[in-house]
Amino acid sequence: MKAFIIDKYKSKEGGKIENVPIPVLKADEVLVEVYAAGINVLDSKIRKGEFKLFLPYKTPFILGHDLAGIITKVGAQVQKFQVGDHVYARPADHRIGTFAEFIAVNEADLAIKPAALTMEEAASIPLVGLTAWQAFIEKGQLQKGERVFIQAGSGGVGTFAIQLAKYLGATVATTTGTANIELVKSLGADVVIDYRKDDFEQVLNDYDLVLNSQDGLTLEKSLKVLKPGGKLISISGPPDPDFAEQIGASWFVKLIMRLLSSKVRKKAKMLNVDFSFLFMRASGSQLNEITMLINAGAIKPVIDKIFPFQSANEAIAYVESGRAKGKVVIKIK
Prior knowledge:
Elements: E1 2-6, E2 16-19, E3 29-39, H1 41-48, E4 61-62, E5 67-74, E6 86-89, E7 102-106, E8 110-112, H2 119-123, H3 126-139, E9 147-150, H4 156-167, E10 171-176, H5 181-187, E11 191-194, H6 200-203, E12 207-212, H7 216-223, E13 226-234, H8 241-246, H9 251-270, E14 274-277, H10 284-295, E15 303-308, H11 312-320, E16 327-331
Helix pairs in contact: 3-4
């Protein structure tokens, strides 16, 4: 099969398409023929080696965290799926590799694709959907009537997070560029700040929850818009001691993560707000919940561009440019 291979971290080539063997199934896995794969900022960061501290992929490896496709084979212990099912998923860490014609996926990470979505639309959902779900429902416990600030509302995570927060009954503020104001408003944003003209920390105050996806300076500013007892959940770092415990890190990695997050944790404590780092995990059961919201019309995919498989490097570069409105997808089949 053809697959997009990373054979060296920080390679100037980025990655290349090569012929590799079709994966061998474990008993609890299914073989999915991949029709489309979503591209995420995470793919770029892993390709550059930015997460080697806790996600040390051994080169060469196949990149890709989102997929939509059709099951062609099932393992002996698989109970929930059968050959011919149309599915989508964000495979678990260390089991990634969706930029390929086939991938083996644990059945626990899979869900039936929303019926109304194309393969390309479905492939845009899993990682950003699970990120928003775990931020707002698991960690943030966002309640009806609360106020949430979502950074970069026109990005992949932002376009999904706005819709989920509105479904949960929250008031939503977001930042975006001038050209994307109408887009984020159409998704449900109540307060839209043009980051080219205004500083959000001068506009917002007394918010219950912030979803941080930007740099360290933006993170520190975001702490100030929270009310006492508010929560800041960061998906861009720095990783904190709780996350180190969650992944069973070594004592050395735990120490590094404690040091990396010490400044922001200290500042959060001074402001009487909560800081936590979220690195989303695979979950087929949560994807099933997301599927119901999509089928009910509460959430719709937002796709900027669809690239052919052979243009995977170009597609990743487009995501890295920060210009994408919603998600970027590569069409595998």
